[in-house]
Each structure stands twice: as C-alpha cells, then as structure tokens.
Specification:
The chain has seven helices and no strands. It is an all-alpha fold. It has a domain of about 100 residues.
C-alpha cells in the first residue's frame, strides 16, 4: 500500500503528465474559461478514475469546497494578475507570477491528494478506469450545477479517453 507522500506525488505526477498530452491542455482550459469548471477538480476526477475509484458524493462536495476556496482566495487572483501582465510586456514579472500560480496549484493538488488516499480495498475493480473517470466527472458537473451540452461533452470525452 502506498503512503500519503507517494499518493501526493502520484497526483502531482499524473497532473503534470496528463496535462502535457495532446489536446488535454486545450480541453482543460476551454472547460475552465467557457464553463467555469475547475481544472484541479477535473484532474482529481480523472486521477481517481484512473485508480478505479468512484468518489462518493460527500467527498466530492468536500473537494469542490476546498477547490472553490483555493480558487477564489489564491489561484484566481494570481491567474488574473498573470493574464493582465501578459499584455504589459514585463516578461520577468510575468514568469514569476506564472510560477506562483503553478506553485499554488501544486499546493492544492497536494492538499487534495493527502485527503483522498485510495487504498486497494477502495478500488472498484468491476468498473474500468474510463467508467470511473466518467462517473466522477459527471458527479462533479452535477454538484457544480453544470448541464452537459455537445461542446462540453466533446471536451470531456477527449480527457476521459486518455485516462
């Protein structure tokens, strides 16, 4: 059984590796910018799905609350500053703010991974990782009050297929 340190590293490594795959970055950012979905929450749903873990509704609500707090108080203000600086020509400060945003996202990922450690007996080996990822993202959308449309579903399908 992996310990909490391996678990947090696992979620961070998954997030970095997954984000670098073709079409993932664009899909995640589209979902963030056009549907107001949290990229970290989507990555959590997919990562847990890859581990054959279905996130219970209560845990999903806790994760949504934690991500919402981090987003509104830390990540979103840093992101807004980075986006504003991008058009102002101060490349050094832009890179510093970009690094701060990434560090904030990593801190949130570590906090989530530390809370949601999946043990072998919690894995749902009767379902595929794709099924688990789809159910996890569906529950997230439901709790976020987001209705699926064709554009959203297309982006989610790209992500789920890569789990």
């Amino acid at each position: 059984m992996e310990d909490a340190t391996e678990n947090t590293k696992g979620f961070w490594d998954f997030s970095c590796d997954f984000y670098c795959q073709p079409q993932v970055r664009g899909s995640l950012l589209w979902l963030q910018d056009n549907r107001n979905l949290d990229v970290i929450m989507l990555l959590l749903c997919l990562w847990q799905g890859r581990q054959h873990h279905l996130i219970p509704a209560e845990e999903m609500a806790e994760a949504c609350q934690l991500c919402g707090q981090w987003s509104s108080h830390v990540i979103a203000p840093i992101r807004a500053s980075r986006r504003w600086l991008k058009t102002r020509g101060d490349a050094d400060l832009y890179e510093q703010i970009k690094a701060a945003e990434l560090n904030a996202e990593k801190s949130l990922i570590m906090a989530l991974a530390g809370k949601w450690h999946v043990t072998a007996d919690q894995r749902n080996n009767r379902s595929t990782s794709l099924d688990c990822a789809e159910k996890n993202t569906g529950l997230y959308l439901q709790q976020a009050g987001i209705e699926k449309d064709q554009h959203l579903e297309n982006r989610l399908n790209i992500l789920i297929a890569l789990v």
